Structure formats: structure tokens, C-alpha cells
Amino acid sequence: MKMRRHSQPAEDTGIDLTPMLDVVFIMLIFFIVTTTFVREAGINVNRPSAQTAEQQDQQTILVAISAKNEIYIDGRQTDVRGLRAEIERLKGQAPDATVVVQADRDAGAGIMVEVMDQARLAGARNVSVAAEQQR
User: Fold this and answer.
1) DSSP secondary-structure letter at 43?
2) Domain 49-133: CATH architecture, name and number where available
3) Cα 47 to Cα 40: distance, rounded to the nearest angstrom
4) What confidence score (pLDDT) does residue 17 get?
5) Kindly report the CA angle at 89 between 85 and 90, in degrees rounded to 5?
6) Is the pLDDT of residue 1 over 60?
7) Using the 8-state DSSP alphabet, how is residue 42 labeled?
């Protein structure tokens, strides 16, 4: 009688990547949840420079005025008449936020005064004008 050898199936020697992927996804979720999102005014403006310019680190509501006197808030173009309502809406989300007006150096002074007036009428206590620090 002949003896047969039964060979055992080869074991799977691959590396299980499931725990590593779980850790990566947990870290991704952690970073997404803890990230603070910065709101932008919606356009790039050429700000004038000033020697007394300071960095603002608290919550801000950004209002941009282009060189063509167009007003942007929260990434959307708006009119002076609708600006007050937009600022009131954003102040409802962040009551202590400062309103920062980013006026282009070629924007008219009259439109900047109107924007600052609408911000104060909307209940903003602190209204600032953005400028770049002189070097």
C-alpha cells in the first residue's frame, strides 16, 4: 500500500492593512472636525499700506470693496442696501465678530463710508479698515 502525503495548503502570508486604514480614516475625521474655516470676502483687493496696521486674530466678518466700487461679503457680490442684512445674519452666527472692510486702494472713499455705516447699523461694535503693514 502506498502512502500518500497530504500537503497542507499554503498559509496566506500577506499583511492585513485594515487596522492601518482604520487609523488613517480616524485621523482624517479628527483633522476635518478640528479645522477652523476662514471666511474670505470673495475677491482680492490691493490694500493700502499703513505703519500702524495690526494683525487681527479674532473672528471677523470680511467685507471687500473692489476698485470698481463693487461690494462683496461672504464670497457673494451685494449692494449697499443688502449689506446690513448680510452683516446681521453673520453677526447672528458670531455675535462678537469684528467687521473688517477690505477696500481696494482705488475704491472711492464714499462707498467705504457707506459700508462702515451699514456695518454699524447692523450692530457691529468694532469696524476696522484692512491695510498692509509698511516694511
Assistant:
1) S
2) 2-Layer Sandwich (3.30)
3) 15
4) 80
5) 120
6) no
7) S
